[in-house]
Design goal:
alpha/beta, binds adenosine-5'-triphosphate, binds magnesium ion
């Protein structure tokens, strides 16, 4: 039987601020397979970003474990310096605000994560060009982010997330700042990455219509992961 590419066991996160505690995630057990396109939905403050942050090895859980790759590498136990390398090789991140560097061109933004992993500048450039072509952004490769539309910036950000060929892509509200039509085209591209390239995608979204592009849906409420959620189920029934 195929092994999950990502697994969490009893993942919990408690934040402590000025003496008061917030349990942002509560005993989350999750298994994600290669090529899954998983949508995570839930109300504001329910723990979605916290979950992605832990899955992306950007923070450590209070208790529980994250196991990465088919070998089930326990990333929770790995020191930060080694984690940085694991993140760069295996994970791609896409954010609501694109997070591109405004002073670099689209091409340079995509090249940046390859530095240190691909030694030849020529090869980095070639690969960045291939990725921008795939995202239909070749005609804007010399533009800087402020000269691009929101949808174009997100396409560059997706190309950047793919720079090092990650098996797992984590996207936090990737369509949160985009209009409906652009959102559909972006989510369609993400679906293709899962179906055609067998990349695993975990996308947080508020939008029931965007989640309908995913192969699996999960819900978070008060830090707990649910297979179904009555409020969202209702919304999904009425989404176009
Ligand atoms: N660094 C932090 N320190 C303290 N509390 C935090 C921290 N990060 C998140 N929280 C709290 O944890 C809970 C979950 O936050 P999280 O950002 O994961 O929610 P979310 O589901 O992503 O919400 P949204 O849809 O608004 O982005 C919230 O109550 C939040 O206030
Ligand atoms: Mg969030």
């Amino acid at each position: 039987m195929a092994k999950p590419i990502l697994k969490t066991i009893g993942l919990s996160k408690t934040f402590e601020t000025n003496g008061s505690k917030v349990q942002a995630l509560s005993r989350v057990n999750l298994e994600v397979m290669r090529g899954d396109f998983l949508a995570i939905m839930g109300p504001s403050g329910s723990g979605k970003t916290t979950l992605l942050t832990l899955l992306g090895c950007l923070d450590k859980p209070t208790t529980g474990r994250v196991l990465l790759g088919s070998t089930g590498l326990n990333v929770t136990a790995i020191p930060e310096a080694a984690l940085y390398r694991i993140r760069r090789k295996n994970l791609g991140f896409i954010f609501q605000n694109f997070n591109l560097l405004p002073s670099l061109t689209a091409l340079e933004n995509v090249e940046l994560p390859m530095e240190g992993l691909i030694k030849s500048a020529k090869r980095r450039r070639k690969r960045a060009r291939v990725l921008l072509r795939m995202l239909e952004m070749s005609h804007r490769e010399k533009h800087k982010p402020p000269q691009l539309s929101a949808g174009e910036q997100q396409r560059v950000a997706i190309a950047r997330a793919l720079a090092n060929g990650p098996a797992l892509i984590l996207a936090d509200e990737p369509t949160g700042n985009l209009d409906w039509e652009t959102s559909v085209s972006i989510v369609n591209m993400m679906r293709k990455l899962a179906t055609e390239q067998k990349r695993t995608i975990i996308m947080v979204t508020h939008d029931p219509h965007m989640s309908s592009f995913a192969s699996r849906k999960l819900f978070i409420r008060d830090g707990k992961l649910l297979k179904e959620d009555p409020v969202y189920d209702e919304a999904l029934r009425f989404s176009p």
